[in-house]
Design goal:
- The protein is mainly β.
- The protein has two domains: 144 residues, Jelly Rolls, CATH 2.60.120.10; 177 residues, Jelly Rolls (Sandwich).
- The chain contains four helices and 25 strands.
- The strands form five sheets. Strands 2, 12, 13, 15, 16, 17, 19, 22 and 24 form a nine-stranded mixed β-sheet that branches. Strands 1, 3, 4, 5, 6, 9, 11 and 14 form an eight-stranded mixed β-sheet that branches. Strands 8-7-10 form a three-stranded antiparallel β-sheet, with no helix packed on it.
- Helix 1 crosses helix 2.
- It is globular, with a radius of gyration of 22 Å.
Length: 378
């Protein structure tokens, strides 16, 4: 019952709104609410006047409004409208080829070419414009943006899109977009990081063995344009699967190659697990703090790209992020990874059944008790 004032009138209730979702609704393009898209290359789009191209928002449930995804397509011979904004943006090219011009208000400018498989970041509040340089094919890309956090913090779109401040620490004309970069080890010495603004082809980029995630997999992390979001690529061999782990929201996992599936479940709710099958062009975002596990059930290595929070250079903690032990430390030791010896036996039984159905051989014998397959090739 509403509270009464001294004069007998009811005190109105304050309505709570999401500035980001209100802005989305006003942009006039399709909005998909989901945690999984089978193929972003075939997603139906609509005209986005602000961008000057067809697009759709993909509100991934697992992102928890910490970041968000949109898919856009530039027609043959077309280009987008010049834009700048106060949120970060990571771009992965799904198909086609083109070029992007980056500039700021102090006269710095770069134009670089990209192709299907390219990955790059838009430096914060730099003006950018994309061009389709192909004479025969539309260019389509997926972008992950931190707009939900920024919009809901300032709740003023005019400020977000029209502030003329140049973040020269992120882009001042000296930073290149030629694919060059610097190779680092992360602070714990566990994996390698490539710091750059532009990755010419994430589908074929060099990876490095990372044994602590299991399955003989390889990995590299990308720090892009001095952002708080990062990206990483993981690849694992035929007939193998990764160890289950969990982390916070906003890891947009885009499949680059191979065929397989992912299992997702809340801690203590294995019987309510969700299974999603994937292929190149699929995207899945595990809900915050849900365990998830990736399986290669095809006949070629499986490779995925994760666009996510978690900069190794700049600390920025999102609610639900990994605990001190990290996602490569056993849950028994305070981390967020389930070791093969501790997983439910049904995990491996399910995997072997999937392999039999596809005519592939399990290669987890040296890693998983009870495996009926063979050891990995050395």
């Amino acid at each position: 019952m509403s509270e009464q004032t001294g004069g007998g009138a009811e005190t109105p209730r304050m309505r709570r709104t999401s500035a980001y979702k209100a802005w989305q609704a006003g942009e006039g393009i399709p909005i998909y609410e989901t945690f999984y898209v089978e193929d972003m290359k075939t997603l139906d789009l609509g005209k986005w006047a602000r961008l000057g191209a067809d697009a759709a928002f993909v509100n991934m449930e697992g992102a928890g409004d910490s970041n968000n995804c949109y898919v856009a397509e530039i027609p043959v011979g077309g280009s987008t409208t010049p834009m700048r904004h106060l949120y970060e943006e990571l771009v992965y090219v799904l198909q086609g080829s083109g070029a992007t011009t980056i500039s700021n208000g102090q006269g710095a400018s770069h134009t670089f070419e990209w192709q299907a498989g390219s990955l790059f970041a838009i430096p914060l509040n730099a003006t950018f414009r994309h061009f389709n340089t192909s004479g025969s094919q539309p260019a389509r890309y997926a972008a992950v943006i931190t707009a939900p956090v920024v919009m809901n913090l300032f709740h003023n779109p005019d400020f977000v899109f029209n502030t003329p401040y140049d973040f020269t620490d992120r882009y001042n004309g000296e930073q290149g977009f030629d694919g060059n970069g610097n190779l680092w080890l992360n602070s714990r010495g566990v994996f390698r990081i490539w710091e750059t603004n532009f990755v010419p082809n994430a589908d074929t980029h060099q990876l490095y063995r990372r044994g602590n995630r299991g399955a003989g997999g390889s990995y590299i992390c990308f720090e892009l344009a001095h952002g708080t979001m990062v990206a990483h690529i993981s690849e694992f061999p035929v007939g193998t699967y990764k160890k289950a782990h969990r982390h916070g929201p906003g890891a947009n996992v885009i499949i680059l190659g191979g065929k397989g599936f992912t299992l997702l479940w809340e801690d203590g709710k294995w019987d309510e697990r969700v299974k999603v099958d994937w292929k190149p062009g699929s995207v899945v975002v595990p809900p915050s703090r849900w365990f998830h596990q990736h399986f290669n059930s095809g006949n070629e290595p499986a490779r995925y790209l994760a666009l996510r929070w978690g900069s190794n250079r700049y600390e920025f903690n999102i609610v639900g992020q990994e605990r001190e032990g990290g996602t490569d430390t056993s849950t028994k030791l305070g981390g967020d990874q389930i070791e093969y010896a501790d997983e439910d036996p049904e995990v491996h039984h399910l995997f072997e059944a999937e392999l039999r159905a596809s005519g592939a051989t399990c290669r987890m014998k040296a890693m998983v008790p009870g495996c009926t397959g063979v050891e990995q090739d050395s």
